[in-house]
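Weekly modeling sync, notes
Attendees: S.R. (lead), two postdocs, one rotation student

Agenda item 3: backlog of single-chain predictions. S.R. asked that every request posted to the team notebook include the full sequence so nobody has to chase files. The rotation student volunteered to paste the first one in as an example of the format we agreed on. Action items at the bottom.

Example entry:
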Amino acid sequence: MNSKDATPEIIYEGKYLRMVHRGNWEYVERTHAQGLAAIIVAVTPEDKVVFVEQLRVPLQAPTIEMPAGLVGDIDAGESIELSAIRELEEETGWTAAHAEVLMIGPTSSGMSNEKVAFVRATGLTKVGQGGGDGDENITVHEIPRPQAAAWLVRKMGEGYALDAKLWAGLWMIEHELDGTPRG
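Predicted structure, as returned to the notebook:
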């Protein structure tokens, strides 16, 4: 029998995730927040890329990431764009006049049904300190765009776990999705 046609069996269900067995596959499903996360590609008016640093419990390591968050975790009807602006402000203290969804795709298609939306935030204005909500301890880094890749490589050498999607985000700062240079 094809795994696609097999009846799913829920192995475990928690508050936010469930583990499913279907045919030869075991995978995780998000049970809230539309199963979608937004990664915010943001560059300040001073041409600095906005990154966040935080301890990620599953890795037991500090990570460097672009600001990100779940879509609809606060308001189920919230759009991707509004979720991205809200998360950007909560995590970094920057708000955006405009947010544009660049693309949506799976985060780990062999392990989870979660998808990620890359969102370009523009018209940034500093409105607060950032740092995340009460459950987060986020450090904000603003790195000059021309030095961002080298800074990330240094952080990796210092033992930080780097989200591989960072490199896609950096590419999206410089290019349109069709590969043409921006600006």
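Discussion: group reviewed the output briefly. The mean pLDDT is 93.
Action items: rotation student to repeat for the remaining queue; S.R. to check formatting next week.
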